[in-house]
Structure to design on (491 residues):
């Protein structure tokens, strides 16, 4: 059963909906007007892993070399305030991808998408959801997937009618990626699985290039190309590593040897990748490796963009580039993504193609999950009524502001609300609440916590009210007004 229309409209009001999409919300049929028409735009979705918002040279980071993503920025519109809504597990990429695929908010995505289990092990009926490749497939698109898929083989079978070099499991080496060949039955027996023989980004790009070379324009396509770079291990090929000598790397302005307090995840896997306390030399090395991985995947993305140009389909193709979550890499004494700081919750997002202005940026606060409704809008497809995200076309075409604030959550001990100027972060760890208030205009590196200053008491109180309202409207199970945020006691 779909989310009731009245409930969905209520969520859209808070989440930022409306605009040009308003007429599409009454249906969950996923039907399209003239479904399957070859005149519909193709979609090429390029998705990276752990790439934070400030890692494109064209978007004011001269330290990193990204010539191919830079040319995409010149061809399209970049969103400089794109966010994820956080995560319910330490592997933030899994709920982030689930929100992208379904267009739903963090506490509405079904557990079967975040932590997929074999069908025989499902203990309850899943919550209703649609997946954007599934919607396009049902509308007559030829759908193709390659690369990282964190959401189980059963959902892959719903989404794609073609694919190659699919990574369902974990990875510890970019040169030995566990992959599966496409199985239309969705069963993926052991005989369909193996280990890749090329560096991950090259292998996934090869698969995408082969698919693009087969397209003749008779049928629109959606290609989902999901890279594992720049996720660790940071082991870029030598030619890219040589681009970033450790001594050439600047220490981040907000570098700290250690985080100033326990945020609940001080000894998690990501944080254990380096020494305590952090040293400047170590962080320089980590950043050098991170940038090398980004330059490597940028080169592979360039090959895919060249293949699109050669296919003759570029004039009718929407290209979308985004990252699934950010990464600290030494900022605030952290290495991972399990925090509410900008380096962890903001991602790069660029759209290019017919009808999208070239060489422009937008600073409206948006979510990665807004891309579901946006793609439907661009293709003239109806949006399922389970989707809570908002089309970005009003932002692209009219500089509309979709929402006044952004809500982010991590597990049951971090919550955040952010406006254009202020960010309030609450931590509740071992019964102790820590409050942070940052002025994002004067202190974008989040160095000066203003929460305890008397002159900001009113701001803190108002933002707490906004945060509580967000939590109620997205069905957050916690209540920050109650002791220990109403978390169930642990035996």
């Amino acid at each position: 059963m779909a989310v009731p229309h009245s409930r969905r409209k209520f969520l859209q009001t808070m989440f930022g909906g409306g605009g040009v999409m308003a007429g599409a919300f009454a249906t969950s049929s996923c039907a399209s007007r003239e479904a399957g028409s070859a005149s519909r735009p193709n979609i090429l979705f390029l998705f990276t892993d752990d790439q934070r918002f400030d890692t494109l040279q064209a978007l004011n980071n001269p330290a990193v070399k990204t010539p191919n993503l830079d040319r995409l920025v010149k061809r399209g519109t970049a969103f400089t305030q794109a966010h994820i809504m956080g995560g319910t597990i330490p592997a933030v990429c899994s709920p982030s991808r689930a929100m992208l695929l379904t267009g739903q908010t963090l506490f509405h995505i079904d557990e079967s998408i975040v932590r997929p289990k074999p069908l025989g092990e499902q203990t309850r009926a899943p919550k209703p959801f649609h997946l954007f490749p599934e919607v396009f497939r049902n509308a007559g698109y030829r759908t193709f997937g390659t690369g990282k898929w964190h959401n189980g083989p059963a959902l892959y079978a719903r989404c794609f009618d073609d694919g190659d070099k699919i990574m369902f499991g974990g990875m510890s080496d970019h040169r030995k990626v566990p992959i599966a060949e496409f199985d239309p039955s969705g069963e993926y027996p052991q005989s369909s699985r193996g280990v890749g023989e090329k560096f991950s980004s090259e292998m996934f790009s090869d698969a995408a290039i082969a698919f693009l070379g087969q397209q003749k324009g008779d049928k629109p396509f959606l290609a989902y190309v999901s890279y594992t770079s720049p996720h660790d291990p940071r082991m870029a090929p030598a030619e890219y590593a040589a681009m970033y000598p450790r001594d050439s790397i600047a220490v981040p302005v907000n570098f700290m040897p250690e985080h100033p307090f326990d945020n609940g995840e001080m000894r998690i896997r990501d944080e254990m990748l380096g020494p305590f306390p952090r040293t400047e030399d170590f962080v320089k090395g980590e950043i050098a490796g991170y940038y090398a991985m980004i330059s490597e995947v940028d080169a592979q993305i360039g090959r895919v963009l060249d293949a699109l140009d050669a296919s003759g389909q570029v004039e009718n193709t929407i290209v979308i580039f985004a990252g699934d979550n950010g990464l600290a890499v030494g900022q605030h004494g952290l290495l991972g993504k399990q925090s509410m700081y900008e380096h962890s919750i903001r991602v790069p997002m660029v759209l290019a193609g017919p009808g999208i202005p070239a060489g422009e940026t937008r600073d409206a606060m948006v979510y990665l999950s807004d891309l579901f409704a946006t793609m439907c809008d661009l293709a003239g497809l109806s949006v399922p009524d389970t989707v809570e995200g908002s089309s970005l076309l009003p932002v692209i075409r009219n500089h509309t502001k979709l929402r006044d604030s952004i809500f982010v959550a991590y597990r049951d001990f971090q919550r955040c609300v952010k406006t254009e100027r202020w960010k309030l972060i609450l931590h509740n760890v071992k019964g102790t609440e820590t409050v942070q208030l940052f002025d994002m205009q004067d202190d974008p590196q989040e160095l000066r916590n203003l929460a305890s200053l008397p002159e900001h008491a009113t701001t803190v109180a108002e933002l707490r009210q906004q945060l509580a309202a967000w939590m109620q409207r997205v069905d957050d199970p916690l209540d920050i007004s109650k002791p220990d945020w109403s978390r169930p006691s642990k035996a």
